[in-house]
Amino acid sequence: MSTRHLPAWTTTEALEPLKREKRQSFARLAVSDALLAFGAITALSAVAGMVDDPQDAMVLLVFAAAAVAIGSFGHKSLVRAPRPPTAKILTGLVVTWTALVMMGAGIYLATGAIDTVGGALVESAAGFSTTALTIIDPSRLSVGMQLWRASTQWFGGLFGLLIGVIALPQALRSSSLIGRAIATDQSRMVTRPVIGTRRVTAVYSGFTLVMVVAYAVSGLSALDSVVHALTTVSTGGFSSHADSFAGFGGGPRIVATAGMIVAGSSFFVIWWAIRGQVKPLLRSSELRIYAVVVAVTTALLSLPGTAMSVGDSLFITASTVSTTGYAVGDWTRMPDFSLTVLLVVVTMGSMAGSAGGGLRVLRVHALLRSVMRDLRLQLDPHRVAVIKNSGRPVEEASIDRIAGYQVAHIFVAAIGAFIISISGIGVVDSLWMALGTLSTFGPAPGVSPFGYLGDVSPWVRLALIPMMLAGRLSVLVVLLAVVWVGGLRRSAFAATRRRVRAARR
Q: For 418-442, how does the pLDDT look when each residue is reduced to its tens digit (9 = 90+)?
């Protein structure tokens, strides 16, 4: 039908002004997407907990409805920018995480699970950052709140995975932080952001379902199976019991160990395994190093005099290398040698492209290769040495960027350790706590083997929140967002000063 037969207000020219009313805002639209997903998991937790505690369930439903309403309004009034600037993407990620933490803190306060604003913010931040730190006894929570608390880590793990696999590579337009080999296979799997998001979410959800069944078969109750499946897949570490896995038998521990090792591996490794692609699995140097780290760490922790069995050593190794934070006992009383090994493993963290945290195996490997090459060049300046990853050469620019990232990571950890030490915590314990939080691991010697922060001063808890943010979103994202916001403030201040000068004239 020709447009001349349609009413004037329905023509393309007439509708154009209406289309322009929708603003382009990556940050607000990202928050809207996150709130819709947050509303969904909150509503599911409310329905599941309706029989156990209707009051908590109603609070969850109210917050779920509010989140969905705000998210829906954002989608109706905003459109996605085709190519948003890098600074706005990174700032949008920080704003989204902050909005989720604020919403989660509101739920803790409204249900009465936590009675202080600071405590609620810390607990919520630990959830969405997948850090095994807490200020409450989870066994005293209602069924709905236990499921919701675990769901915050599940959502935080998925959020971090989408950032590392899709958002960061596109925003930075560089593979230097994830590796050339991974970036090549990523381009094959994530042909478009929408397709990549669907595939990541599908595999992540499928892995969660497998873990629920595995925990149930091992003898856990339905509630414990779901809670621990959500926090294992996300490498979060929240448990439904205050002593984590200390009260469970061998079956659940075996399931948790296997689940943590898989969760700490790269998402691309899981993708290759599902599709039966053996060649990329054998080619991945990062996967080989990851396996060696697990084996060597387990062997070192099992040495005579460490008072730890091979099974428990493998469990704590899986917990640290994946930065999950589960525990089977008071591992903080291990010999100094064992604690030093664990600190190195926690700092290094999981594989790139996983839900875990830390410096990442890939980056540590690249830096070590770079150091060894420089030492060889000192002996033979005319020697040609090329750093390779999974058989592919790594560009010098990538090595420089990775080195800069590592420096930023250690710098943030040093600042955090200094702030923590002011409260009276020892230097070594402060460093452990800072590195553990920045790696999204959580527990630390001198604090608690199960991540309990009840004995830590409130202002130190609040100081941990920025480190949780940096650990979950990547130090690079947070620093670049801060630089961008600082630039905006300086620009606004300069503009205001120019207007004041003009008015005086």
A: 999 988 888 889 999 999 999 999 9
